[in-house]
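Record type: monomer structure entry
Structure origin: computed from sequence
Chain ID: A
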Amino acid sequence: MDLISLPDQILIKITSKLGLQDLLSLGDSHSRLRSFIYESPEIWTSHLLFPPHDNRITDAFIRLIIPRITRHYGILSLRMIQLPSLSWLGYFTIFDQFAHSVKRIDIELSNTRVLWDLAHHLGIFAGYLVVLQMTNKIPVTFREYGAMHDEGRYAAVISKYLGQHNMENQCEMLVKRYRLDDPPFERLDEFELNVVLSDKQEMNYYEVNHAIQQIRLLTLFLSGCPHELQRKRRREENDLSLKHMKHKEEIQY
């Protein structure tokens, strides 16, 4: 009996033993296996989807693979740990695919440029959603925002309607004054963000900490429950710790 003749339950057990690259290769071997793999949320665990420290997880890889995976509500957790080749655009593509279903997000990164980019673009994205809601227009998605990538236009529109030029003030204002009717992270309960700093990066501790708090605040706002989750955020701040990394270990494949 060949693989394509096996019952789905058996295929699930087989694929659960495979790593990401082997799974993708299996999907490319036959149309039946391809459909089964990408349409089965049980396969796509958070550990399988984004192997920690894997520099092959690039923006291009994400654009190619992520849209193939089912948008079924079975994918409840995203765990993105030390993905050095991923930019804010890659994260936005991931959010776009799974934001509607995910209940927990864990992110750990070392690239402070990506951290600041995430804070910057999440702020503009959140502000633009508020403006679209105020003007009774269809909300923009993470993917649409990333594809247009016209932050100057977005920022001008936000400034016109919300009167905010300072990103820090905008974050606080959004949470205090507005609530999204159709939040992108509609089921999000937990969000964890950690940054690993090298000795040379420790001079940026306060800037990094500020960016972390901005991202947390914006994520809570985009979940649609800012007041309830803001209380949780304050409790989390008491436990906030930035990990120190003296040596970077390069993963060889």
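Annotation 1: The two ends are 33 Å apart (CA to CA).
Annotation 2: The longest strand covers residues 190-198.
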